[in-house]
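ok so heres the complex, four chains, lmk if somethin looks off
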Amino acid sequence: MKDLIPDTIIRFAEKFQLPERVVDSEELPWVPFTDNHSCYFKPLRFDLSTGTWTYLFRIKPNQVLGKHRHTGGAVIGYNLQGKWRYEGRSWVAASGTFIFEPPGDIHTLISEDEEVITLFILSGALQYFDEHDQIVGQDDIYTVLNKYRNYCAAHGIPVREDLIY
Amino acid sequence: MKDLIPDTIIRFAEKFQLPERVVDSEELPWVPFTDNHSCYFKPLRFDLSTGTWTYLFRIKPNQVLGKHRHTGGAVIGYNLQGKWRYEGRSWVAASGTFIFEPPGDIHTLISEDEEVITLFILSGALQYFDEHDQIVGQDDIYTVLNKYRNYCAAHGIPVREDLIY
Amino acid sequence: MKDLIPDTIIRFAEKFQLPERVVDSEELPWVPFTDNHSCYFKPLRFDLSTGTWTYLFRIKPNQVLGKHRHTGGAVIGYNLQGKWRYEGRSWVAASGTFIFEPPGDIHTLISEDEEVITLFILSGALQYFDEHDQIVGQDDIYTVLNKYRNYCAAHGIPVREDLIY
Amino acid sequence: MKDLIPDTIIRFAEKFQLPERVVDSEELPWVPFTDNHSCYFKPLRFDLSTGTWTYLFRIKPNQVLGKHRHTGGAVIGYNLQGKWRYEGRSWVAASGTFIFEPPGDIHTLISEDEEVITLFILSGALQYFDEHDQIVGQDDIYTVLNKYRNYCAAHGIPVREDLIY
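and the predicted structre for the whole thing:
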């Protein structure tokens, strides 16, 4: 049965495989996501081939993150710490909650009394609404990468180029 | 070696597998993509889980499709008929050309003398610029699905619900 | 700027969007992954459209999980608890480590003194080698789904059908 | 509205974007897929990050391609020329047919009187059965890449490294 994966293929694959990536999130900075410093992120991966990025997202207690739409991409989340909910929905994300939000979803995130940390995988763009439902800003993989690189530059922190793949 | 995929697993998979989908594009209508009827599409798949859609895209000869950005998603194309290019680039897509455009790419498509038909797979959003580089519109999987359903409704054509999966 | 996403599109998307999915992992059972009960999983998502599955994976302390190849798919992991490594590599995954292993990677996982819990997203198939590098078994999304359903049936636990999407 | 994508972000994205890829399939060789030369492929993309490959697949008339399972990945196809079907199914793929086969699907492909050319996007692994339903071989992104590189080496054709991304 060894011939199912001949040694030649194993050696060939080893030669062409992308390198593994191992990131200790402890070593990464918390980068402010918004100007008001209500939330921060630690980047884990920027996949420039699909526009998908992965980060730890940290939200201060008792915050309301403005209403936004996930245009053209889904949200996958795994909550690590703290509690949060989307306004008007019946569930609360606690430690250990896994969340899928479909492309197009519009929501306003509200954190509870404890600081929140969630692992998020995101694609497409986030488009932010003001109180009149006008779109007043958007984020995508490039704006997030830009926030990270600018933060590193401003604080003299070396950029982890191995997060981009 | 049969035990690598036991019969129980084969029967189990057959029970849970998504149905196959087979679409004869001949049976689908050419739906106008833009108001000026410079281009049309035949939808092949709407993947609402990732925001990815697949369509045949048909462009009349000698058209200029307005400058747009692929925000948050990539473009994969396989050109079937006609020639087109992106303004300012050195290549021309002919029959049999495969194209990958990365997320964030901004381009203006120009068709040559023959009508173009290209198979495209798209994610994220298309954001259109006017001559002052102001964003004046956008498309994503929902606007494309909406164009298709509205066209079917207006022309008494049954909607192919099996394109959504 | 509101016209970038007209109300008609927002209402249309709300009608066609896939439902959100929220899973409290506390409510899910630890399903034995192997006969020797060295590791367990809590399923979070079975994406039958791409063959990708997401689970929490729990490994008893001081275990060696047999050498296997990720044929045709990548590994994405975020380690939540405990320490583990792949035999022969220089790094150790601790709480907060993010890991990407490319398709084709072959490795043997070794847990340290504390019980490990890792969030994994997997595609393709796992193919297991014996000590002579013969392939003696494999897993894919269906075998994992089968383990979960069989466990539920054997223990009178209702299957969470909303994990399949 | 220009501020939705500030010039700084456009310039930033242009700097970090992956390069576009344009492949004229006319310039690529038909690489034998099987030893009996019943089918050939022209590679269009090897995505080593996900194990997904894209190729034009050409099948001689009146062939039967052995029964195989798509373990851990889906099949997306767009038929360009000729007619083919899967044994036992009610449909026939003709020019312009789009096909989705779910992960786990098992089928035997039969071509009709004309040579077939189909664009396929594949993930995971193909596992081949003999007449006793024993698994006697498998392909994945590495075996396909290996066939291509070996063919180039044997025929003095330069490898298109830009197909790997």
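quick notes: The mean pLDDT of chain A is 96. thats all i got rn
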